[in-house]
Amino acid sequence: MPKITVVGQGEVEFDGQFSMLEALDEAGFDMPYSCRGGNCGACEVRLLSGNVEHIQDTAYETRGKDILTCSVIPLTDVEIELI
């Protein structure tokens, strides 16, 4: 199971939840979000390492290494940072 590390907050294993956001939310992380559908950008974080798979199309466009946690799942261990 891939591990999600949030800089300064800790880590959790991804256990097949719908999205990275869902896994973090279930584990009690204080992650920003609003729509959970890729429309608002509130759950945007910086992907520092690892690989993710996009599971849904988003209306909000990220730049560079930024991802929407509501719209991806980790394929490998990942490290993310709140921005």
Automatic annotation (TrEMBL):
Keyword Cytoplasm (UniProt): no
Keyword list, A-Z: 2Fe-2S, Electron transport, Iron, Iron-sulfur, Metal-binding, Transport
2Fe-2S ferredoxin-type domain span: 2-83
First and last residue of the signal peptide: none
PROSITE patterns: 2FE2S_FER_1, 2FE2S_FER_2
Entry superkingdom: Bacteria
An example Gene Ontology molecular-function term: metal ion binding
One Pfam family recorded for the sequence: Fer2
Cofactor: [2Fe-2S] cluster
Family to which the UniProt record says this protein belongs: Belongs to the 2Fe2S plant-type ferredoxin family.
Protein name: 2Fe-2S ferredoxin-type domain-containing protein
Provenance organism: Thiosulfativibrio zosterae
